[in-house]
Amino acid sequence: MLIDTDVLIWLTRGHEGAAQRLAKAIPLRLSVVTYIELAQDCRNKAELTRLKKGLALSHAQLLPLTPAISDRAMQLIDGFALSHGLQLGDALIAAAAIDHGLSLLTGNIKHFRPCPS
Question: Cβ(60)–Cβ(29) under 8 Å?
């Protein structure tokens, strides 16, 4: 299972449902895009350090971008950016899930609905 950014944000905000669901998903797998989105949202070095420690404690596996993921993301953008408003980050995350044969845990079903599973 690949974890989308929004679920991890909910976890940091104390959302009990996110905590329970993520506890069943150890080790966490996330795209490097999710890491980048979380890191760029940090307001200072202390928050960035907490993010890194939290991911290390949960034995998070960061899935890198590959040429295959890039190619798939381009196909998704070609197919769904104009018709459904698919954005870059979501296309890369969806492509990573597809490439690795993983389901996607997200609260933003609307963002990923047009993407093949």
Answer: yes
pLDDT level of residue 13 (50, 70, 90 thresholds):
confident
Domain of residue 47 covers 2-109
Identity of the amino acid at 70: S
Rounded to two decimals, the pTM is 0.88
Are 25 and 57 in contact by the 8 Å Cβ rule? The answer is no
CATH of the domain at 101: 3.40.50.1010
pLDDT computed for residue 56 by the predictor? 92
Whole-angstrom distance, CA of residue 100 vs CA of residue 72: 12
Q: Count how many domains the chain has.
A: 1
pLDDT on residue 15: 83
Whether 19 is covered by a domain: the verdict is yes
